[in-house]
């Protein structure tokens, strides 16, 4: 593999005993690969990796977060990949670094479930243009292009109805970005903003679409402008990615003694924002 | 109230001062702080009032993401002990209007002593350093640290740090005292011809991955950092904090070693004190004398204040971003595992976005009995659950401290901290 460090984050989670196969062999932990958090992690995005690994452990499945730092090679055999947000210079740096990564290329080609937030979404697109007008080639895992939006940044909490099969109920998160993203024919939107004019964010741009899902290959690459981090605020999206990685999930067994309301949120049954209307869901590609 | 006629100021500035006194007196009688209104009105009457008020003072400006208020208070103490009259914005109002107000207040109370020996020590919001420095012609500029804070309000921290560097470059006569271990802070400090570097290993390097000079990748090895593209590297400290076996010593550029003996807790305050000693020495105060003046400082605007309540005490701590939290966690690690109440709000002054909670290593609180409170207690609780840290939820942070027996720490972000401070006053 690589010289990447095994992160102990989050340290406080008691590890379940390593399950064994019927033959008695220890099972390898599911590996969540966190890419370049020192440059792509502005909005607490490392939390997405922690959420994925912890939700597996709460189901008795051993899991770990593998942090790939600047000088580490990206492993090709990770089970899930997570990219976060970053400022302009950091984003260009991260993109240059990841474009040459054979490990990440192989992982994306085989359809490893991947979550890319904000700058991460733009890096996985075909290209993005930063504020000074420089156009940078992306990794092309998502068929989308990003250009500077002009005007004020799109900042604020948003609620969006998912357009992706397997996602139930609205997604929510906090947006803070300047770029406008246009999807190509090989990408489908992740969600549609609810009443975009009344929200602080704008999703991908005019039209109120939010995020992107790759239509090519396995459709396992999910990009979004939502942070918070997005998987902490939307456990259903976390579980969808986990299902893509490991198949059907055993029931969630939460640690004892959690506040009831918190346990409900961790189960995905309770949202932070009110004003949740039903029945507004639309299908992708419409 | 008696109005002293401000001497030596031009007519327009005098009119500004009088107008300011009238409105801030009214604001204070109405129960408001009046920490900015006087300056705002004075500036409306005379646009140059800040420059005129600062003209005869030796000005020290303190900026950075965390520690501005405490370090400003320390420097004011160090310099004030020397018989100098010191003006300072102790209320924490750190934009131009607040600084003007603080200078107006000093004018009102100094009764004519403000003169060539007088000093102004002002904390300045990072985004306003250029404007304030242009008006006040500072003798010393202190750069504490730069890290992510209220990204939805303030914007990119790199941009903020770059503007600070521009302000430094525009004032070549100011002595810059900057933190060598913080990449963005050092990047800004290098804009000065001969900066004095303060050094002490710090834990937080979350915004230190990209070179402030060339946008290349910055690599870290222990406390050292260097850009692998342009070679920009951590400068050696002129003023270094060394902590060994429970003793904190500040080593100065001429080899002096001064032992710190502070009432304020934690590595963070020993580092703030190192800055205060460096600035003191620059303005003629011996480090040992400066350290003596810091010994009795027990609280700064309610920060670190311990309040007695039935059944125990409550200590008030402010932490409003990941770097600030890293310092508070260090401080809590030094003490016993007492209960901690964490209060998080997301009002305008806090920043609306609470994603930063995921950049805080709450895992380190596992040994403390813990309560999550504040308007964003639900988000905090989810974060703590994923951290594997047991806790309970409470509607009201101060009430939660009252429900606890013994000595408790209450850690709040900006408005949560100030709400608690007010409730406990």
Quick tags:
heterodimer; A: 286 residues; Rossmann fold; 4-stranded mixed beta sheet; globular; disordered N terminus; B: alpha/beta; Protein-Tyrosine Phosphatase, Chain A; 6-stranded mixed beta sheet
Provide the residue-averaged pLDDT of chain B: 90
What is the total tally of β strands of chain A?
16
Write down the CATH topology of the largest domain in chain B.
UDP-N-acetylmuramoyl-L-alanine:D-glutamate ligase
Radius of gyration of chain B: 22 Å
CATH architecture of the largest domain in chain B: 3-Layer(aba) Sandwich
What is the total number of structural domains of chain B? 2
The largest chain-to-chain contact, stated as pair and per-chain residue counts, equals: A-B, 50 and 45 residues
Quick summary:
With 286 residues, chain A is α/β, with parallel strands linked by helices. Helix content of chain A is 21%, strand content 24%. Chain B is of the alpha/beta class and 425 residues long.
């Amino acid at each position: 593999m690589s010289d990447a460090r095994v992160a102990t984050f989050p340290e406080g989670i008691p590890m379940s005993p390593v399950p064994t196969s019927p033959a008695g062999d220890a099972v390898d932990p599911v590996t969540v690969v966190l890419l370049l958090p020192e440059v792509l992690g502005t909005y607490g995005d490392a939390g997405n990796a922690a959420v994925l690994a912890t939700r597996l452990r709460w189901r008795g499945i051993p899991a770990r977060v593998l942090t790939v730092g600047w000088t580490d090679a990206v492993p090709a055999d990770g089970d899930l990949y997570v990219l976060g947000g970053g400022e302009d210079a950091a984003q260009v740096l991260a993109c240059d670094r990841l474009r040459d990564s054979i490990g990440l290329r192989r992982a994306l080609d085989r359809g490893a479930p991947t979550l890319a937030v904000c700058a991460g979404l733009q890096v996985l697109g075909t290209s993005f243009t930063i504020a000074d007008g420089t156009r940078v080639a992306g990794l092309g895992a998502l068929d989308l292009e990003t250009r500077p939006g002009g005007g004020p940044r799109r900042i604020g909490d948003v609620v969006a109805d998912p357009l992706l099969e397997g996602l139930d109920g609205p997604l929510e998160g906090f947006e803070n970005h300047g770029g406008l993203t246009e999807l190509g024919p090989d990408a489908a939107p992740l969600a549609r903003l609810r009443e975009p004019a009344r929200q602080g964010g704008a999703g991908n741009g005019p039209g109120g679409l939010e995020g992107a899902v790759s239509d090519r290959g396995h459709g396992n690459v999910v990009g979004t402008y939502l942070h918070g981090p997005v998987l902490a605020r939307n456990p259903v999206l976390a579980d969808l990615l986990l299902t893509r990685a490991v198949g059907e999930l055993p029931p969630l067994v939460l640690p004892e003694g959690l506040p009831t309301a918190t346990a409900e949120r961790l189960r995905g049954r309770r949202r932070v924002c009110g004003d949740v209307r039903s029945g507004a869901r639309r299908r992708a590609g419409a | 109230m008696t109005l002293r006629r401000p001497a030596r100021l031009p007519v327009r500035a005098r009119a500004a001062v009088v107008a300011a006194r009238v409105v801030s007196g009214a604001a204070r009688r109405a129960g408001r702080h009046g920490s900015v209104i006087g300056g705002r009105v004075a500036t409306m009457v005379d646009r140059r009032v800040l420059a005129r008020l600062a003209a005869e003072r030796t000005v020290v400006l303190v900026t950075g993401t965390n520690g501005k208020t405490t370090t400003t208070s320390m420097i004011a103490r160090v310099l004030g002990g020397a018989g100098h009259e010191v003006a300072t914005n102790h209320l924490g109002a750190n934009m131009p209007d607040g600084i003007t107000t603080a200078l107006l207040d000093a004018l009102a109370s100094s009764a004519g002593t403000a003169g060539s020996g007088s000093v102004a020590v002002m904390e300045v919001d990072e985004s306003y350093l250029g404007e304030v420095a242009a008006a006040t012609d500072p003798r010393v500029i202190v750069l504490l640290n730069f890290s992510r804070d209220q990204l939805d309000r303030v914007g990119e921290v790199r941009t903020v740090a770059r503007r600070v560097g521009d302000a430094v470059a525009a004032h070549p006569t100011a002595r810059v005292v900057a933190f060598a271990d913080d990449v963005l802070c050092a990047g800004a400090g290098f804009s000065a011809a001969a900066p004095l570097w303060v050094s002490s290993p710090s834990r937080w390097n979350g915004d230190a991955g990209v070179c402030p000079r060339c946008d290349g990748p910055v690599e870290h090895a222990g406390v050292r950092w260097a850009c692998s593209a342009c070679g920009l590297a951590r400068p050696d400290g002129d003023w270094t904090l060394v902590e060994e076996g429970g003793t904190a010593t500040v080593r100065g550029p001429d080899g002096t070693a001064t032992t710190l003996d502070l009432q304020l807790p934690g590595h963070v305050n020993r580092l703030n004190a190192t800055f205060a000693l460096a600035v003191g020495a620059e303005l003629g105060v011996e480090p040992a004398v400066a350290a003596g003046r810091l010994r009795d400082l027990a609280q700064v605007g309610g920060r670190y204040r311990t309040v007695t309540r039935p059944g125990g005490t409550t200590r008030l701590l402010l932490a409003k971003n990941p770097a600030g939290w890293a310092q508070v966690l260090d401080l809590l690690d030094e003490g016993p595992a007492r209960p901690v109440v964490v209060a998080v709000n997301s009002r305008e002054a806090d920043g609306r976005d609470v994603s930063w909670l995921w950049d805080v290593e709450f895992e380190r609180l596992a040994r403390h009995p813990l309560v999550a409170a504040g308007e964003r207690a639900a988000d905090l609780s989810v974060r703590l659950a994923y951290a594997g840290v047991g806790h309970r939820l409470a509607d009201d942070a101060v009430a939660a401290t009252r429900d606890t027996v013994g000595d408790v720490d209450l850690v709040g972000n900006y408005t949560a901290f100030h709400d608690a401070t007010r409730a406990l006053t």
